[in-house]
Amino acid sequence: MNKALRKAVIAGNWKMNKTPAEAAALINEMKPLVAGADCDVVLCVPYVDIPAALEAAKGSNIKIGAENVHFKASGAYTGEISAEMLTALGVEYVVIGHSERRQYFGETDQTVNLRSLAALKAGLKAIICVGETLEQRELGYTETLLKYQTKMALTNVTKEQLKNVIIAYEPVWAIGTGVTATDEQANEGNKYVRDAIAEVYGADVAETVTVQYGGSMNAKNAEGLLDKEHVDGGLIGGASLKAADFSVIVKAASR
After folding, report:
1. Which of 67, 70, 98, 230 is catalytic?
2. Which residues have a Cβ under 8 Å from the Cβ of 56 and sit 6 or more positions away?
3. E strands in the chain
4. What is the pLDDT of residue 220?
5. pLDDT digit string, tens, across residues 150-207
6. CA–CA separation, 253 vs 2, rounded Å?
7. Domains of the chain listed by start with CATH number
8. CA 108 to CA 104: how far, in whole Å?
9. Are 82 and 114 in contact (CB under 8 A)?
10. How many angstroms separate the CA atoms of 249 and 115, rounded?
11. Torsion of CA 154, 205, 240, 251, to 10 degrees
12. Mean pLDDT calculated for residue range 133-161
């Protein structure tokens, strides 16, 4: 991390977990554990949990986000949620392009870009996910793919809008598998992302963008990962559902 240049952000991605009552209870357990953190603390929760999460987080340093957003403001898109709906609730962040959305729900680089543009236009902070599969890594395509995905996601995003963008490098082979990239692999992947931003917006701008690592970061490995130059925080899955574990990661990012 380089806090002199960019924000450290620890964001929990709860996925399809927790009822509203359970969400409120977990946030109330977390609040004293992460109070005073020297990094931004975000929890991205299921749509139905958002009102309860916002109420529970009120007055604390925890910000609430959503896990996805549609690219249209309204229309015949059954089951989808617009950026305007999220901002009306009071949501500040949204995860876009998570590997599970790409794998199970047909998300593409093009729809990731459209969702990102819609979120940014509505004033949301977008956590945009990029990452390679194990096969792509083994074929030597990691740098090419990460740069392509990053540039595609940021197509038509202005330099001003980029201030509200976080990129999360999440190697698909390390999501929910228990396998984590080494500290060096995470730093290398994050650097590829930053290099892609530099190629579009310039090196000075790229140095200000928060690039998280998002592949099975947990209480045991967070310190080593966050010690790397280009790892500016984490997009946390399973560990964000345990208050004690999540707080250890937040403390590691607060050093």
Report:
1. 98
2. 23, 24, 27, 28, 31
3. 9-13, 40-44, 62-66, 93-96, 125-130, 165-169, 210-213, 233-236
4. 95
5. 999 999 999 999 999 999 999 998 877 777 789 999 999 999 999 999 999 999 999 9
6. 11
7. 9-253 (3.20.20.70)
8. 11
9. no
10. 29
11. 180
12. 96
Residue 3 makes CB contacts below 8 A (sequence gap 6+) with 38
CA separation for the pair 247, 13 (Å, rounded):
14
Spatial distance between the Cα atoms of 206 and 150, rounded to a whole number of angstroms: 12
Residue 134 structure tokens: 């194990």
Cα of 123 vs its chain's centroid, Å: 16
- Residue 170 annotated to the active site: yes
Chain position carrying tokens 């790409």: 102
Which DSSP state fits 5?
T
Residue 48 is given by DSSP the state G
Contact criterion met (CB below 8 Å) for 231 and 190: yes
State yes or no: is 98 an active-site residue.
yes
Distances (CA, A) of 59 to 27, 124, 218: 12, 20, 26
Tokens 């917006």 map to which residue?
Answer: 201
Helix (H, G, I), strand (E, B) or coil at 188: helix
DSSP per residue, 142-175: HHHHHHHHHHHHTTT--TTGGGGEEEEE--GGGS
Instruction: Name the active-site residue from 67, 107, 132, 170.
Output: 170
Confidence check: pLDDT of 55 > 90:
yes
**Residue by residue, what is the 3-state secondary structure of 11-35?**
EEECCCCCCHHHHHHHHHHHHHHHC
Rounded to whole angstroms, the Cα distance separating 135 from 94 reads: 28
